[in-house]
Predict the structure.
Amino acid sequence: MNIQAMMKQAQKLQKDMMKEKNEIDQTVFEGKSSFVTVEVNGKKEILKFKIDCDSLDKDDIEALEDMAVVALNEAMGKVDKLTEQKLGKYTQGMPGLF
């Protein structure tokens, strides 16, 4: 294989990776924990944070804070999972590149 063909193949691979990454960035991921629902995008930016106050005692703020952490971590985990599924084929098992 000559260098020109290798460069063309590398450019196609880069283009494919960027397309996959853009799709992930545009995807909305939801995390839930009891009274808390969060939505994040593939860039791990929080888009929505909802608390179901009707089901919550006002005195239970510490539990609410814990539920918020669980919901956020769940949503962020979904981002990582989809990123690995879509881009793992390009990194061939080398974690942490995206």
